[in-house]
Automatic annotation (TrEMBL):
CDD domains: ABC_NikE_OppD_transporters. GO terms for molecular function: ATP binding. This is Dipeptide ABC transporter ATP-binding protein. It comes from Paenibacillus agricola. Keywords: ATP-binding, Nucleotide-binding, Transport. PROSITE patterns: ABC_TRANSPORTER_1, ABC_TRANSPORTER_2. Gene3D superfamilies: P-loop containing nucleotide triphosphate hydrolases.
Amino acid sequence: MDQKTEHPILEVISLQKRFQVHQSFGNWFGKKSYLSAVKDVSFRLYEGETYGLVGESGSGKSTTGRTILGLTPASSGQVIYQNKDLVKLPKKELRRFRKDIQLVFQDPFSSLNPRKRIGRILEEPLIIHKMGNQTQRQEQVFNILKKVGLLPEHYFRYPHEFSGGQRQRIGLARALIMNPKIMICDEPVSALDVSIQSQILNMLKELQKEFKLTLLFITHDISVVRYISDRIGIMYLGTIVEEGPTDDLFNEPLHPYTKALFSAVPDFTRNRLKERIILKGEMPSPLSPPAGCVFHTRCPLATDKCKTEVPIFKEMQANHKVACHLF
């Protein structure tokens, strides 16, 4: 796919999310500061692809996904879908676009109402958007349960009666029942056993083809994102530091952080162990991010320029971009 000639289905431009933090003495008298969870994030989603968003815990991956959907209001930036900026839309108009962009949560149990049967939970979005009558909605729920590998009798059960893998299937069913064009998957398999992970991932690939879905797949698991993604964006401290096609990124990572991240993944295809890159220190606090390149405090190749100047996110190869002064 030539991405330069293809129009993106969704475009994120300079997205930022800052949270106000109240320190000592509470909301009225305390000193106010801001936590930059997402800082100047830009990327494009193309129809039918899977874009993987990867990084350590606290890098801003999940906040990015929730901000795109409007569950967390953006501080600034744009989210362009069907020539509309979702960031600026009023809530009533934004609800109309929510049918096309759905979210699969990391913890399906906490996202399911424990007092409602699964059938009622799956019917709820159809009722909200006034889609079909009661008989049609019930038939649609039975159909979507079958597609995610569940049985008709599961319609009458409560969330606590299911295993973790089954709950995640319910989460997928709830997103798919609206027949969306884009699905944001926030760590959908991180809490599951490895064998269940593979089942969910394979099913997700099949459903993507059947429903013609575009996926934004958020995870910290490098092996999972390599399996499912067409392109990958590497996040560090609220910014994307490298982006490229999956094979290019794994064959020739450019950013020092990407190299360190990928070195932690065992490679069983070679006879020798690859060199493990150990980063010193912890990720800086987003309350007081470092000046210049956000990674310079842990980068083994940092120079004086890295400490003062923010690197430009530029294309080095075909569709392969990096933000690093070394290039």
